[in-house]
Write a structure and sequence with these properties.
disordered N terminus; 5-stranded antiparallel sheet; homodimer; 2 domains; Sulfite Oxidase, Chain A, domain 2; 375 residues; globular; 3 helices
Chain lengths: 375, 375
């Protein structure tokens, strides 16, 4: 494994003491400069693994300036043996590598009407990478979870003040929880490598949680503190943010955003791309889902009336998106046409035609139309 | 007991089909006209029981036009025998009368700095009345609560759309839940009389929940539906509204507002009242707490440096406020002076000098200063 002292080899910049953005990402779209929020221009998608310097960046606060030598992860709360792990100790533990797609819970928000609040992500607040680290289950076993524990709360070193008065809790760290059942799944990692390289500062250096199958907010970056809890955790980012309404007995009840919904995105053609009339065109994109596998992607070129199967380009890998292609021959007459893609997963779940407002501005997987110019 | 066909005898108006405000309340301050939110001018407090047409009104939506003859209360969810109760059936069941103080969770909000969002209640979003009705425990016993049930969700007939996009669940009924342990306490009633009279429309006619010891939002008016639930209920009014931050392991966790905090309010002198120099003056007010009893009220006339006991004027009655007085002799020299009152309850709880921001704009019981003009 590579040295921890080279956290951002993609950009050739050495880690410095500054807390703000330290990498450069010429290929990404800036949605917000401070804190840093960057999106992959999805029509530029090439490979199943997105390089580290092309992977979308979602941050809630300034990127903390952490050094591997002084970083520590504390594990406490309802455990038999509270413990503190250093970076060297973490890297000395048995590690596994998992490929996993992370998607921001607000990806696609720019498509909502009326215009939604929040960062207006288009298609590209999503990426797929390999993550190497220590299974969280192993760390929890070392600490010894007490009987009656329900959840694990994960706190990042990133912190600041959330606005939104009077509802906000003021100055806080980013934090999220997982139910113990998910926390103990073998794919959930305390990761320190991303695509085989040390985590870039923007992606959580020295170590982050990676929760495959769940929206990105669960994969807490700059991980600093684990707290096993015997009571449900209703933190800011699982109530006022990253939560949605479920109906129970007719009443809406607020629940945290968790598992990713099944979704296909068309990378090419791009919106309003000019496509030659009557010539075969390779429609290309990616499809992903939550705690299951994508089993099919279909394409419609007639406003959703009929659907044709796309070709899945690679083998199913749990938690990793699949690339797909579809050879489309547009009509010979010039005109505007729309393409739609929809994915289905092994649980039979597919994409809805419209966004359910109970999901607020999260979990956006309605079938999207890409309009192209045939000429 | 009196007839249900006379819902608002205080104002001499017969119940009509209109949904909007049907009573007149010349002695109350309007904080919001639609929906109707009215406050008692606290310096006009006289008696331990506040008359129905002087009792503060808190509504979230237009007042529903309900008729006793067609009203029904359904009890369902995790019960053995789902049932529906009519008004006549409710009134035929064994009834009890409880005196209870209800205080709006936002009472005193006008005192917060910086200026808080929400209705700017001063002192008087609080009142004390007797409530007559059927213990909720008896209704739950009739329905047969299933093993594993956790909570009871109470839904009112009042409904509308909550703004606050994108976080709101849209068009909903007012609803709140109680843990089963509280729901089964003998003081919790489905009430149909207020101070011995049928509930006024503004106070929940034909029937409302009354939850003594808890802030007013728990006492759901225009009660129409009870749902026993085996999962925690995180509805709009116990998360986005009427909820506050508790710290657990350093992280703020959002919990519903429940029990009232101990509090004394000075009714007289009023703010900026002119008080004769050197003459004994009867300072007068009320004090209340949550699931306990007020055991003492103290007064300070020297910016909180020293405190003298006030005289409690009546016997402790569980859940009902106590009136108190304190004979204060102001200095002989003219000038500005402040009076402060603070209450203590049987659990040793008292009032803080400042508002804890984690309580958001709820549960405001900081010691308040009443400035008077001695001349």
């Amino acid at each position: 494994m590579e040295e921890a002292t080279d956290p951002l080899p993609e950009t050739g910049r050495a880690p410095g003491p500054a807390a703000a953005s330290r990498g450069t990402f010429p290929g990404l779209i800036t949605r917000e400069k401070d804190p840093m929020n960057l999106e992959l221009p999805f029509p530029t998608l090439e490979d199943r693994l997105v390089p580290n310097n092309r992977f979308y960046v979602r941050s809630h606060f300034p990127i903390p300036a952490l050094e591997a030598a002084s970083w520590q992860l504390s594990i406490g709360g309802a455990v038999q043996n509270p413990l503190v792990i250093s970076y060297d100790e973490l890297r000395a533990l048995p590690a596994v590598t998992v490929a996993a797609t992370l998607e921001c819970a607000g990806n696609g928000r720019a498509r909502l009407t009326p215009k939604a609040k929040g960062l207006l992500w288009e298609q590209g607040a999503v990426g797929n990478a390999t993550w190497t680290g220590v299974p969280l289950a192993a760390l929890l076993a070392r600490a010894g979870v007490q009987a009656g524990a329900l959840e694990v709360i994960f706190e990042g070193a990133d912190h600041g003040t959330v606005a939104d008065e009077p509802k906000s809790p003021g100055a806080i760290h980013f934090a999220r929880s997982l139910p113990l059942a998910k926390a103990r799944q073998p794919e959930v990692l305390v990761a320190y490598l991303m695509n085989g390289q040390s985590l870039p500062p923007e992606h959580g250096f020295p170590a982050r949680l990676v929760v495959p199958g769940w929206y990105g907010m669960a994969s807490v970056k700059w991980l600093s503190k684990l707290t096993v809890s015997a009571v449900p955790y209703a933190g800011y980012w699982q109530t006022l943010e990253y939560a949605y309404w479920q109906r129970a007995h007719g009443q809406p009840t607020l629940v945290p955003v968790t598992e990713m919904l099944v979704k296909a995105e068309i990378a090419r053609p791009a919106l309003y791309e000019v496509v030659p009339a009557g010539q075969p065109y390779r429609v290309f994109g990616a499809a992903w889902t939550g705690e299951d596998e994508v089993t099919g992607v279909e394409i419609s070129a007639d406003e959703g009336r009929t659907w044709q199967p796309a070709q899945l380009l690679d083998a199913a890998v749990p938690f990793a998106w699949r690339l797909w292609e579809f050879i489309w021959t547009p009509p010979t007459a010039p005109g505007r046409h729309t393409l739609r893609a929809r994915a289905t997963d092994g649980a039979g779940r597919t994409q809805p035609p419209a966004h359910d407002p109970d999901r607020r501005n999260y979990m956006i997987n309605k079938i999207a139309a890409v309009e192209v110019v045939v000429q």
